[in-house]
Write a structure and sequence with these properties.
Layout lengths: L20 H6 L37 E9 L5 H18 L9 E8 L5 E8 L5 H13 L6 E8 L1 H6 L3 H4 L8 E9 L5 H12 L9 E6 L21 E9 L5 H15 L37 H6 L3 H11 L15
Antiparallel strand pairs: 1-3, 1-4, 2-3, 2-6, 5-7, 6-7
The structure holds flavin-adenine dinucleotide.
Flavin-adenine dinucleotide binds next to loops.
Length: about 350
């Protein structure tokens, strides 16, 4: 929308000669609700040429192996829990590169509260005939020295069957559509320290609060994502090894305060060394705008002195602000974490 308040429809592309290229760039990680209303996307892999749709995007894998793993909390004392997290973090440190042996495997470790009964892992591999071996290597590396039994369920399906209904127990859980949910995430460049693992254990096992939907998630990260320059797109985080999220979910509005209190305190304690947030530095690298968290703009929860927009966009923020000035000079598209006019 221009200065006069007139809305226009425009096409922006990655072509260097496109006068609207900066608007395209801003949409490669610049978050929603900042510049206008997106009505359509056309996707192409970098370097793709021509118009044949079959050659414009990476081919879908021939098959997908999914795996579901569970450890009973009854078998995880504090030592075993710490070993599992250390193993997991070290696996991520070894496998975040695009050519790493585990590059074709993704998993999320769901560290549910002890009161929920189980710690779980969900993951998948697109390595075709090597997928099963990769999966067992991943699980063996995680279990090394833990000394707790775990259940393993592996399933192979076509890519399409998986894509149409991935992990229904996570994304279509009964009742979830009416639930409230708070997620506070962080990019990590190093595995959690032993102090952070102690904090996680304390918050997941403490019995003085009733937070059945509380959870700490650890997702593997990297691969090709880490081969792109930080300023090539608006997504600045390009060398993380995993992403972590502190979550709480509840059904009744009267439970909000208790759940929010727990999840905010967990996050603040995990990142206590950097002002309660994952400030960009040796160990962490900010947060992911697709999981927006207005607490990062609240001085009660962010005492780091690092502004929310640096946590999300790092050095790309001033460039996003210039795009904002050009395409939304009246700041029509505004919310708690929208890009501000320069
Ligand atoms: C269960 C769950 C799993 C998720 N998993 C992932 C994941 O694996 N990877 C990942 O990257 N993200 C993930 N997300 C986050 C999700 O991608 C973001 O929340 C995303 O922004 C949601 O898009 P939406 O269209 O629902 O937008 P909304 O939530 O409606 O809006 C998000 C923002 O975009 C703006 N917006 C909406 N539509 C438009 C439009 N047409 N043009 C411009 N701005 C618009 C809104 O104003 C708002 O600011 C997950 C979220 C959930 C709930």
């Amino acid at each position: 929308m221009d200065e006069a308040g007139t809305a226009r429809s425009v096409v922006a592309s990655r072509e260097p000669s496109d006068p609207n290229r900066e608007l395209w760039w801003a949409h490669t990680g610049g978050g929603g609700g900042n510049f206008g209303i997106v009505t359509r996307y056309w996707f192409r892999s970098p370097g793709a040429r021509g118009t044949d749709p079959a050659s414009l995007l990476p081919p879908a894998p021939a098959s997908i192996l999914t795996f579901r793993v569970g450890w009973s909390w009854d078998e995880l004392d504090e030592r075993a829990f710490a070993r599992l997290l250390r193993n997991h973090g070290e696996w991520c440190e070894r496998n975040a590169g695009a050519d790493a042996p585990g590059a074709k495997l993704f998993s999320i470790l769901f560290l549910n509260r002890r009161q929920a009964g189980k710690v779980e892992l969900r993951g998948l591999s697109t390595a075709g005939p090597d997928a099963e071996r990769l999966c067992h290597e991943h699980l063996d590396a995680l279990n090394q020295g833990v000394g707790a039994a775990c259940t393993r369920q592996l399933e192979t399906s076509t890519w399409l069957r998986f894509a149409l209904n991935p992990f229904p127990e996570l994304f279509r859980a009964p009742g979830a559509e009416n639930a409230s949910f708070k997620m506070k995430d962080a990019f990590l460049r190093r595995r959690f320290t032993d102090r952070q693992i102690e904090v996680a254990h304390h918050f997941l096992t403490r019995t003085d609060v009733d937070v059945p939907g509380g959870m700490l998630g650890l997702a593997t990260y990297g691969g090709k994502v880490n081969t792109v320059a930080p300023d090539a797109t608006a997504s600045a985080q390009r060398d993380s090894i995993l992403t972590t999220s502190c979550n709480a979910g509840w059904m009744d509005p009267s439970e909000a305060e208790r759940n929010l209190g727990w999840v905010r305190a967990l996050y603040r304690e995990l990142f206590a060394d950097t002002g309660g947030v994952p400030a960009p530095g040796e160990a962490s690298d900010g947060a992911f705008i697709n999981h927006p968290d207005a607490d990062l703009a609240d001085p009660r929860w962010n005492t780091s002195g690092v502004p929310w927009h640096t946590l999300y966009y790092k050095d790309n923020y001033p460039r996003l602000q210039r795009v904002k000035a050009r395409w939304d000079p009246r700041d029509v598209f505004r919310h708690a974490l929208s890009v501000r006019l320069p």
